[in-house]
């Protein structure tokens, strides 16, 4: 199961309720399945990753690949698709600033279930997955593990 498919009660602990108005092309977060990180969480992750510009159409996750970076959308939008580049391509959802695609599969070392392409040019924060595993394990130590904690521990 990818992070994109998690149930509403498995949203990462401490993620902000989606109180910001949805972007016109962003998938609404009606059930808490697509949490938006707080400015404080993004600032923390920024100390462990790299900001980079992304161009419209750029593939940031390829279906079937094992990712090396956890991505947080800082500006612009990213579309999650299945069967990308085929006549059956379908946009499943669109994420805007503060959201992140596919973290659970990434933490577990699984291949990506879906593709992600930049829909609107902007900037992402890329945190190496190995570094993220260490951070998640450290943050989750001694707590009842939410999904990201359990994933970090199982990939060990």
From TrEMBL:
<feature type="domain" description="Cyclic nucleotide-binding">
    <location>
        <begin position="33"/>
        <end position="131"/>
    </location>
</feature>
<dbReference type="InterPro" id="IPR018488">
    <property type="entry name" value="cNMP-bd_CS"/>
</dbReference>
<dbReference type="Pfam" id="PF00027">
    <property type="entry name" value="cNMP_binding"/>
</dbReference>
<feature type="compositionally biased region" description="Acidic residues">
    <location>
        <begin position="19"/>
        <end position="28"/>
    </location>
</feature>
<dbReference type="InterPro" id="IPR018490">
    <property type="entry name" value="cNMP-bd_dom_sf"/>
</dbReference>
<protein>
    <recommendedName>
        <fullName>Cyclic nucleotide-binding domain-containing protein</fullName>
    </recommendedName>
</protein>
<feature type="region of interest" description="Disordered">
    <location>
        <begin position="1"/>
        <end position="32"/>
    </location>
</feature>
<dbReference type="InterPro" id="IPR000595">
    <property type="entry name" value="cNMP-bd_dom"/>
</dbReference>
<dbReference type="InterPro" id="IPR014710">
    <property type="entry name" value="RmlC-like_jellyroll"/>
</dbReference>
């Amino acid at each position: 199961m990818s992070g994109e498919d998690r149930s509403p009660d498995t949203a990462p602990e401490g993620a902000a309720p989606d109180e910001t108005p949805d972007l016109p092309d962003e998938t609404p977060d009606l059930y808490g399945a697509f949490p938006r990180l707080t400015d404080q969480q993004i600032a923390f992750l920024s100390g462990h990753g790299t900001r980079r510009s992304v161009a419209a159409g750029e593939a940031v996750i390829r279906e079937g690949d094992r990712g090396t970076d956890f991505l947080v959308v800082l500006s612009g939008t990213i579309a999650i698709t299945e069967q990308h580049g085929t006549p059956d391509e379908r946009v499943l959802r669109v994420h805007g600033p503060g959201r992140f695609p596919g973290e659970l599969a990434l933490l577990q070392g699984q291949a990506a279930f879906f593709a992600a392409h930049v829909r609107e040019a902007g900037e992402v924060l890329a945190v190496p997955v190995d570094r993220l595993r260490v951070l998640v394990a450290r943050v989750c130590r001694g707590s009842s593990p939410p999904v990201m904690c359990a994933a970090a521990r199982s990939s060990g």
